[in-house]
Amino acid sequence: MIRKAVDLILKSEFPVIICGQGALYSMAWDEVTELAELLGILVGTTITGKGCIPETHPLSIGVVGGRGGANFSNSIVDKSDLVILIGSNTDSANTYNWTIPSRGKTVIHIDISETETGNNYDSINLIGDAKVTLRELIKEIKGSGKIGKKNIILDRSAFEDRLSKERREAVNPLRFIKELWSLSPEEAVLIADPGVSAIYTAAFYKAKKVGRYFIFNYGLGGLGYSIPASVGAYFARPNSLIFSLSGDGSFGFSVGELETIRRVNANVVIIIFNNGSYGWIRAEMKARGKDIVGTDFSSPDYVKIAEGYGLSAYGITNDEEISDTLKRAIKNTPSLVEVIVEPEDKFVPPVMPWSKRFL
């Protein structure tokens, strides 16, 4: 089966690797990068596989699929003639209902679970630990004497620059994520709740190094996860800066944990994207042509709430305030930053099929 997979890879003109969470569990990032560089293969990840390759790497296309995948990265998967899935459960969210990749693609599926391999795609299945299996693939490719690089050129700078410079009535979330990226240390851990927090982080915050530095709970979609999870991340990595990216809809579920964060003096920056609504539900209603009902609510003074718990607290209402405010929040942890943004139905994030503007 290894030889059959290698034969497909070497004959392919436009292969793409997609890493899921299993590649992180296996710590297979060295092998992923080596395979990609050996043949010049582009690498994407699912939202939970983020960190399998540095996203500053010239072969990285970022997150793909229905959660965090922009049309830019998804279109690359669509153009490919071979998809190498590594440690991915190929659920509906990761694949956008099994269209990224489409069911007609030639697929090699590497996974330790016999249940997962071939579950949703007619694939060549390599059942085993991702790291060990990739090592065998690399060994076979090197021994074949047929190594030739796929001359694929990737440039996503124009795509990102256009979106980050777009002026909004409130803060541009993409501009915020890019500023956050530029100010964050390499070892920073990011934990994101569903909604604006997770989608823009997944799509536009580039992993600076390999490993598990991103935690998303999109599988369950539970609101209010990131703030208490940031406490756990702090105890796991007390020397790292922890970012909890939440929303105003999520904040009310776990506001009491601000007391814990202050009591243990955690090195945590809580970021609340405030759009005055359950924005994801609102956008889904609009996308389906439904009346928007029951999604909007008033916004309490989040800065005062955080200060009441003893945290340093700041507010950002426009793009010009982002950099200086983030610097102060990072310097004075534990802290909270309220970021005023528009609901998802007004500034549509890269979620299929809501928007075609994320080219």
TrEMBL record:
Keyword terms, alphabetized: Thiamine pyrophosphate
GO molecular function annotation: 2-oxobutyrate synthase activity; 2-oxoglutarate synthase activity; acetolactate synthase activity; flavin adenine dinucleotide binding; magnesium ion binding; pyruvate synthase activity; thiamine pyrophosphate binding
Domain of life, per lineage: Archaea
All residue ranges annotated as the Thiamine pyrophosphate enzyme central domain in the record: 2-137
Catalytic activity: a 2-oxocarboxylate + 2 oxidized [2Fe-2S]-[ferredoxin] + CoA = an acyl-CoA + 2 reduced [2Fe-2S]-[ferredoxin] + CO2 + H(+)
Gene Ontology biological process terms, A to Z: isoleucine biosynthetic process; L-valine biosynthetic process
Cofactor(s) annotated in UniProt: thiamine diphosphate
Thiamine pyrophosphate enzyme TPP-binding domain mapped to chain residues: 194-339
E.C. designation(s): 1.2.7.11
Role noted for this protein: Catalyzes the coenzyme A-dependent oxidative decarboxylation of different 2-oxoacids such as 2-oxoglutarate, pyruvate and 2-oxobutyrate to form their CoA derivatives.
Assigned protein family: Belongs to the TPP enzyme family.
Record text on subunit structure and interactions: Heterodimer composed of an alpha and a beta subunit.
Protein name (Swiss-Prot/TrEMBL): 2-oxoacid oxidoreductase (ferredoxin)
Annotated source species: Saccharolobus islandicus (strain Y.G.57.14 / Yellowstone #1) (Sulfolobus islandicus)
Lineage, uppermost ranks: Archaea, Thermoproteota, Thermoprotei, Sulfolobales, Sulfolobaceae
